[in-house]
Amino acid sequence: QARLVESGGGLVQAGGSLRLSCTVSGRTFSKDAMGWFRQAPGKEREFLAIISSNGENTYYTERLRGRFTVSRDNPRNTAYLQMNDLQREDTAVYFCAATWLWTVDPANYDAWGRGTQVTVSS
């Protein structure tokens, strides 16, 4: 069975940066597109970014305004989300997820991590 584990979250001051990691086991990572989502308390899960299985294609939600970058290192079975200029509204639990599809719909992701908390203070 697939296992996805996020790491790298924590408390950061507004304007700061974090890099989240997502390590994957139990499935063929090189065949998966990897997505990043976040969910704040009381809000719907929000799509952030997706990267293709070979890392050559990416897609971001407009809401990020160029502050976030998704990448991956297939030999290490790891995906990353670099987050810069973090703001209070970025506070959320951040999830990585795997899919065989090119999709922004969380229903089409078949494996999820448990999430890592990112808290941005001022």
Describe this structure in a few short sentences:
The chain has 122 residues and is mainly β.
Written overview of the protein:
The chain is mostly beta strands and 122 residues long. It has no helices and eleven strands. The strands form two sheets. Strands 2, 4, 5, 6, 9, 10 and 11 form a seven-stranded mixed β-sheet that branches. The model has no long low-confidence stretch (mean pLDDT 96).
What is the 3D shape?
globular
Oligomer: single chain
Largest sheet: 7 strands, mixed
Order of helical and strand elements: EEEEEEEEEEE
Q: Which consecutive residue ranges, at least 5 long each, have pLDDT under 50? A: none
The proportion of residues forming helix, as a percent range, comes to under 10%
Radius of gyration: 13 Å
The averaged pLDDT comes out at 96
Task: Please work out how many helical segments DSSP would assign.
Answer: 0
Instruction: State the secondary-structure class.
Output: mainly beta
Total beta-strand segments: 11
- Portion of residues in beta strands equals over 45%
Instruction: For the record, give the distance between the C-alpha atoms at the N and C termini, rounded to a whole number.
Output: 40 Å
Give the SSE map.
Blueprint: E1 3-7, E2 10-13, E3 18-25, E4 33-39, E5 46-51, E6 58-60, E7 68-73, E8 78-83, E9 92-99, E10 111-112, E11 116-121
Primary descriptors:
122 residues, 7-stranded mixed beta sheet, 4-stranded antiparallel beta sheet, single chain, mainly beta
